[in-house]
# Entry
Amino acid sequence: MAGGLAVDARPRILVLDDDTMSRRLLEAALTAEGLIVETFGTFAHASAAAMRQPYDLYLLDIVLPDGDGLELCKQTRERSQTPIVMLTVKGDLSDVVRGLEMGADDYIVKPFRMPEVIARVRAQLRRTQERGSTRTTAVRVGDIVIDRDLRDASVRGAPAGLSPREFEILDFLAQRAGKSVARDALIDAIWGERDDLSEKILAVYMRRLRRKLESDPDNPQYLHTVRGYGYRLGLAT
# Structure
């Protein structure tokens, strides 16, 4: 650009992991995908970088020498809807649940497979870029309006403030409003693959959605559990 500096429009990724080899592998693989990658080994350095400039996605390890990635997840979610993917040790459901409760959009279990990391990062970036659709852009269920252009829902006119993953789950149910949707169908559509934690993680997201959309989350009017099968979005009958 004449008279000024060219702006690099490539997505910028923040990687927080205290393991040096993991950081190097992630940086090499994601850079090869055309992304700008900045890696950090401590919470303090990553948090300072996140305050200095915006990123397009955060890839956060949980256990760190000076804190944990969950705190950075919480800080990030308080100021933006930037996608957050947590790195967690295999089988540690409690850390995954805590991350999702703080607003993380996805998780990757260690030891990770690099093709899976790339696929999940790409999926999150793609979802943040998607705007509009040839399908109905808004669906109303009682007091809830699901807006596919805004990628959010409102309850009696007030924005719900859904995370990208929360919106995807609600949108999938909204396109099938009134019908029961199998858990496996939801997991396949949203995550693309299953693991040992999938159904439990889906249940965590449903609790989060109910807290944001229902007047009484323990007695939902809209987001119903179909015992032994899945979920249904619709007015209580």
In short: Residues 30 and 118 are 7 Å apart (CA to CA). The domain at 12-129 is CATH 3.40.50.2300 (Rossmann fold). The chain has two domains: 12-129, 138-233. The first helix runs from residue 20 to 32.
